[in-house]
Amino acid sequence: MSAPLSCQNYIDGQWKSAQSGESFESRNPADWNELVATAPKSDRADVDAAVTAARRSYSSWRLVPAPVRSEIVHRIGEGLQARKEELASLMSREMGKVLVEARGDVQEGIDCAFYYAGEGRRLFGQTTPSELGNKFAMTMRMPIGVAALITPWNFPVAIPCWKALPALVCGNTLIFKPAKDVPACATILTEIFAAAGVPPGVFNLVHGTGQKVGSALTDHFGIDLVSFTGSSKTGAEVAAICGRTHKRVSLEMGGKNAQIVMEDANLDLALEGALWGAFGTTGQRCTATSRLILHRDIKADFTAKLLAQTRKLRLGSGIDPNTDVGPLVNAAQLDRVKYYLELAQEEGVTILTGGHPAQGEGLEQGYFFEPTILDGVKSEMRVAQEEIFGPVVSLIEVDSFEEAIAVLNNSCYGLSSAVYTQNVNRAFQAMRDIEAGITYINGPTIGAEVHLPFGGVKATGNGHREAGSTALDIFSNWKTVYVDFSGQLQRAQIDNR
Q1: Smallest Cα–Cα separation from 102: which of 299, 318, 290?
Q2: Nearest Cα to Cα of residue 206 among 11, 12, 14
Q3: What are phi and psi of 314, to 5 degrees?
């Protein structure tokens, strides 16, 4: 057991305690006896200090050439590479993710860094002909100002990198507010940013709760942009505040993702996708497969295979290489999953396996829940409509491909989706008709890559897309520039008509 990490805020290039002097603990969700870290319980005073630093540093950072900013981002990638195993191990201990997935989380941050380092030599604008003679027209990207990055616990390296790296390349200064469950991961990540040469005040870290720190950032007059990942309920509140205070806001929120398995599908491949999609990260992904929409002709066979494989999954500490499914992140999340299993029984659902907090040797002090399969689920049931965020998957039977698409779309969310079929016509119809930001053909609902847009429709987001070049549109403003070298007044739409 490693010694606990004593975390601090990072403001204007200095490590600092909360001005209140208060702190909170981060404990291993697989073994509550292990204290992973302590962190400052910050409030508005700490946010004010961070905003002051970020605003002051913005005036100089925005003038640093984008290719130079991108060199710093590239060094962040190298720093992540150097500390990958350290971060992965810490992540497994702090939020429970199994070690192989934790390594993937860090690798996603590395991939982001190298991708956006390249964007620093592009940041393309456009040149276009003017309708008037002796006049030049072009567009260019400009930074927005000070951005608040409010990130969740389930991807404590990847998601902050999704946000911070394009924001830095675009010339913004940042205040990073991580989830209170992962202060240690956020601290190591901040150390890497500082070591890469990010100037003081350009990247600031403020620990604390959403009620204190998140709210203070969202309504602060010195914040120009809020990038939020979390629940749809909280995201709606963030959007309302940002609307009143004229901030740009990017929201990445919930999901109730479905995988369709048609009668012509490769069932073994679909089975692998369902297991990974439903139980990877203990179901604690916004892209997790929480609904399996199964054609009636293969439902019995597929369900039997799924049941057999699910019962083989091994629960335990994420740091144990033999573990398939780690713990839920905290007691509140365990209570949430328990609540939905009670609700499922009230709705008349059949629990094929699981359904209870897990017990057994090595599980006594953790927040473990058995991988759970619900059968006889109808599309209108709450367990098929509401985000559970745990190792629970609902089976829904359909009679046709058209019904499968309709059931998939019967959701207030629209993040990720998957269809298993060997019929190319169905595949292309699914691409067209599914209401989701991401669609996989013969692949699970999880597995996004950093150079492609990530985000959803309906209650999943507000139209922005993270990752890829589309993230640059979140963190930059378009400026249109006209250069008139005619030496006289030229009135568009008037003098040339």
Answers
A1: 318
A2: 11
A3: -100, 125
CATH architecture of 257-441: 3-Layer(aba) Sandwich (3.40)
Structure confidence at residue 1 (pLDDT): 67
**Among all residues, which ones are annotated catalytic?**
252, 286
Cα–Cα distances (Å) from 92 to 34, 103, 104, 333, in that order, read: 12, 9, 12, 17
**Domain residue extents for the chain:** 5-253+461-480, 257-441
Tokens of 463: 């139209």
Residue 352, token pair as written in the block: 């094929």
Q: How far apart are CA 49 and CA 39, in angstroms?
A: 17
The answer to whether the pTM exceeds 0.85 is yes
Each residue of 296-351: pLDDT tens digit? 999 999 999 999 999 999 999 999 999 999 999 999 999 999 999 999 999 999 99
At residue 90 the predicted structure's pLDDT band, cuts being 50, 70 and 90, is very high
User: In the CATH scheme, what is the homologous superfamily, with its name and number, of domain 5-253+461-480?
Assistant: Aldehyde Dehydrogenase; Chain A, domain 1 (3.40.605.10)
Contact 437, 132 (CB under 8 A): no
